[in-house]
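Suppose you are handed only these lines of text.
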Amino acid sequence: MKPQTTHFRFKASQTLVNDQIQQSLEHVYTGFHEGRLTAAANTDNWEELRTKGKAIKDHTIAHLDHYLDLLADSVEKNGGHVFFADDAEEARQHILGLAKANDVKTVIKSKSMVSEEMALADALIDAGIEAVETDLGEYIIQLAGETPYHLIAPAVHKSRKDVAALLSDDFKDGDPVPDAVQLTRMARSKLRAVFERADMSVTGVNFAVAESGSIALVTNEGNGRMSTSVPRIHVAVMGMEKIVPSIQDLSTMLRILIRSATGQRISTYVTMVNGPRKPDEEDGPEEFHLVIMNNGRDRLLAETRMRESLNCIRCGACLNACPVYRKVGGHAYGWVYPGPIGSIVSPVLTGLKDASNLPNASSLCGACHSACPVKINIPRMLLELRWRTAEGKVDARERTSSIKERAVWKAWRFGMMGRRRFDLGARVARIMIRPLSRGGWIKKAPPPISGWTVTRDFPLISPKSLKSLLSVRTKHTKRDLD
Ligand code: SF4
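From them, the structure of the protein bound to iron/sulfur cluster can be written out as follows.
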């Protein structure tokens, strides 16, 4: 998928005025976020599990080379094939090559963000191969010609009416809108035949277990199991960080992933794949291929201050908790990964200069950090990226701040560093902005704060500082006590 991170402001402002999408985004909070809070409250050792999850990921990422080698050996011992792809192009070409060599006509896909990075479905279709998404949300998005809106709910922004129009050529404005069960039946009737004729499947990987060579898939729809057992070739694609050392570690990670993603204790299906079908087995693929993709992750690995982002298990909890994501929606982020984690991963993987708006799309409230099941300190990394765009000290080409902006912040810093300077600055600002106000509010401010008043009013600076109000109050309280 080609990054469109430069369009953040435009896409965000479009979403902000779209009432239907705003309503759909509410569900992200009331459904997923509140579900996660309830699931966490009902799990006695929740904080202990989060700490354990973080320790497992920290350890694995610190010894990634070792565990990748172990995983490759284990998969091959199980009869599978492993391919390490340096970037999306290499991964795409490898999978296209497999499809062509095996005369594949139809590929079914289950949900995988890594395959979005590769733009795999489009590449297969361009090569004359039928490629169909089988996760319901992904199928809807494919029919709409869009990209996923959320890590675990790709079509969360679509209304039932939108979905009906996509699934049925006969649906017209004014027709009764089918309910969710009817819509699912409509999709099922279309997809069933595709499952039957597919000769290859491409799935994602929630976790790959290094010691056993197993891959785990967490789904709430039966498409994952159909994809891993019906076609004769199964290709699983993963980012190189999606690895855990052992089955015991997998059990911890599944518990925190599922609760954080949907608030369930366990998802409808947790599928374990251990390579191709064995001679005594009745179903399963004849061939199993695991494609492990780098695509810039080595840059995250090399940067000690950004490495923690590789701990992400793509549960989506930070998106659901984020007040910014819940307003601007998933497409504003302009690449595969939206929300707070996308604001860290996209700038590093696709280039900070074009994605410099993303680290700024945060109130730094810390809700993402509190929600994250592996305790990734997202605000710290957002600040790191902001610092880079402001100063350009890691790579001068990354600096996006103008001379004017830097001068304003230098003056601000100078003012904030001394008590007297701060008081004087506040007094001067109070006097200067008073003529612009009407009824205590400034409705149209001049630069550099003109952007603020486009969508909201700017308050007058209070005639008394908080400190002076507090000191009067303290004096009163002391007198009362005496
Ligand atoms: S950063 Fe944490 S909360 Fe966000 S998707 Fe990744 S694991 Fe989940």
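What can we learn from it? The radius of gyration is 26 Å. The chain is about 50% helix and 10% strand.
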